[in-house]
Amino acid sequence: MQALAEPDAVVIAASTRGLLGALFEYRDLGAVEVRGIAKPVPAWQVLRPSAVASRFEALRGSALTQIVGRDEEIDLLLRRWARAKASDGQVVLISGEPGIGKSRIAMELEALLQAERHFRQRYFCSPYRQDSALYPFIDQIGRAAGFTPVDSPASKLEKLETLLARGAPPDEDVALLADLLSLPVSKRYLLPNLSGRQKKEKTLEALIGRLESVARRRPVVIILEDAHWIDPTSRELLDLTVSRIRNLPVLLILTFRPEFQPSWAGQPQVTMLALNRLDQRSQTAFVTQIVGGKTLPDDLVAQIIERTDGVPLFVEELTRSVLESGLLREEEDHYVLEGPLPALAIPTSLHDSLMARLDRLGSARHVAQIGAGFGRWFR
């Protein structure tokens, strides 16, 4: 049993550790004594946010299940990529509720393009950074330059210069991007004397110029996730990007929840892709894949499908929860129920997602709460 290293440390239990995934870096404290609990319990100290920028990858890990029921959507993305490579810049807007598979489709496209010569740029909006101007772009430049938490400002400036050198941007652009990243500007890159508005406009142009420079060397795939959390200045930059990539080999993919209202829908180079829930056949195939190809009892599969409403994340989480519940005994090629089939409980990992869906109902949320008391079927 280990003692905590610092008296003010943030310490979490195994259940929270499982929910947080790789969102943070941790130190395993082993078993610790907790007031009110008879035996020592496993605990971890939260050290710092991790370098994993994608919420999807941090929470789901690198071992992904095979994508199911999205062949048409993947085919559409590949067709848009073919057009983009011919310098017919394309924008695909992927819309859907939480857990429907927006990030999963983007990752599938990345996997399919691995063998092709192209650049990839990934941007991630955050619910905690909606007031931070250009946060997704600042974050991406830092990751592309290889910034680490221990780097000094001078070291970060050197890495930024190295990143930008291949595109040979004007010195003013380097100064503006260094200032955007709160880095000290060297004598070589003097920041021009500009008003706040002029500085913002020139910074946006510098960021567009960086994209144009990259696209001149090879085709580019840009994926911006969770656009419903985007800050106003980043949205301005997206407006510029959508108009400027029309004659560039660029495929821009945005993922977002239904509450986000894109202003580019209807433009000739823009495609809307609204993800629907999985049909029953796809859900059954997905459940079979999650359990490793073995057969589950038909009644159990039917209950999983009924309770998850075709949302892939819900199907995956509820199936894994059942496998870990002790309800099943594993045989050679199938699972057997150990007793009567109980009503399946919703896993803790889904509560936040379900609450987010309820919050969007507004005044109808009260009706949903009443309905939850009645159950799915009533006279």
Written description of the protein model:
With 379 residues, this protein is an alpha/beta fold. It folds into three domains: 11-50, no CATH class; 69-274, Rossmann fold (3-Layer(aba) Sandwich); 280-374. 43% of the residues lie in helices and 15% in strands. The strands form three sheets. The protein has a five-stranded parallel β-sheet. It has a three-stranded antiparallel β-sheet with strand order 1-3-2. The protein has a two-stranded antiparallel sheet with strand order 9-10. The N and C termini lie far apart (57 Å). 25% of the residues are buried. The mean pLDDT is 86.
Give structural attributes.
globular, Rossmann fold, 5-stranded parallel β-sheet, 379 residues, alpha/beta, 3 domains, 3-stranded antiparallel β-sheet, 14 helices
| CATH architecture verdict of the largest domain | 3-Layer(aba) Sandwich
| Strand order across the largest sheet | 5-6-7-4-8
- Helix fraction? 40-55%
N-to-C series of helices and strands: EHEEHHEHEHHHHEHEEHHHEEHH
Strand content: 15-25%
Structural class: alpha/beta
State the major sheet.
Answer: 5 strands, parallel
Question: What does this entry show, briefly?
Answer:
It contains 14 helices and 10 strands. The chain has 379 residues and is α/β, with parallel strands linked by helices.
